[in-house]
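Known limitations

Files may contain more than one protein. Parsers should not assume a single record per file. Below, a two-record file is shown to illustrate correct handling: read the sequence, read the token line, then continue until end of file.
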Amino acid sequence: MGIINNENKKRIIRITAAAVAVCLAISVFTLWFSAGYHADTERIAEYCRASRVEMREVEGALTVFGDPESEYGFILYPGAMVDHYAYAPLAAKLASYGVLCVITDMPLDLAILNPNAADKAVSRYGSVKRWYIGGHSLGGVMAARYAAGHAKDVSGIVLLAAYSDIDVSQSGLRCLSVYGSRDGVMNREKYGAYRDNLPADLTEYVIDGGNHAGFGMYGAQRGDGVSALRDGEQIELAAEYIYSFIKAGD
């Protein structure tokens, strides 16, 4: 019987550790993939074709809609575990009003892993005179954090079923909040508790019959209420509110 020397023992330990690491990585990815929300690509493609707005995927994990020479720009952070492409209809609709829209593709679909993703859009599209940043759910929380640290670069914050856990009340930033009356996911207690973090002149809209998932196209979300709106209506209302909010800042 052969003798296993110290070098062979170390090699066996390294191989075993590597195998365990690979298995853990596969397990984590499988769990993430099954728990996440995937874009409804067929519905999105149909909606975007109807909008007649050009979509471009550019280097730096950005999906862009509209004219790069637009005066206004809007950067959108996706909700947690939601495929960024699910927000293409909202970006396309807003771009149809003349606003350059940039959706950031986050690592593992989590904005918390790249809170400064907006930097790439701001630096790439220098023709935009006034930037706004917003996000859905956790993406909105991270967008507010970005705005708080970059008040010279952005003019305002758009919270879609979200709140700000950082005080921006005296930042000079304008703020819009939009959520659905049937939202079963957004934490209403935190929304109320963090209200003082926002400017006193906050613009707020509650979409009657809207829910949490209605800002994108990724299917039903666990724990959410059932929307009473027609397909895409919440997206159209949100785009209208965002555009009116942006224009009101002139």
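...continuing to the second record:
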Amino acid sequence: MKLVEATEKDIPLIQDLARRSWENAYAEILSNEQMEYMLSEMYSEAEIGGHLQHPDYHYYLIRDENNGSFEGFIGYQHHYEGSSTKLHRIYLVPESKGKGFGKGALEFLHQKVSESGDGRIILNVNKHNAARNFYESQGYRVYDEGTFDIGNGFVMDDYLMEFLIHN
């Protein structure tokens, strides 16, 4: 596995990977209308392009070194709040799950966060998303929950999770 820093030219690939992942991960959690709304808002060219221009926001593509295919991506922002890095996005295409890519991406993130000087990683996970179990298996814990209005009559009902970096 190799993580490759994404650039503007990778936006269509990120959009494709997000759609393929979301159609699997959220099929039984979100309505088609909410999924389409969120994908169009959160993964528009302007939105991702703006993230890529921000000095503390990073996207990395997850590549399988055995066959060169892109299996997913991770997007995070250092110093999001105080000395916390926010893991905004980590998605794998369905056929790559269970192969260690997610664990490897989190290990990569832990190293990058440690290098940044932040001491904590925070993330939101949908209350009905099995990914919560994965995060817990990697040492993350739920510290709160929240319901967030994302517009167009939709909300995100999430657990807030954290991981403490031991520098």
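Parsers that stop after the first record will miss the second one. For reference, the second record is described as follows. The mean pLDDT is 96.
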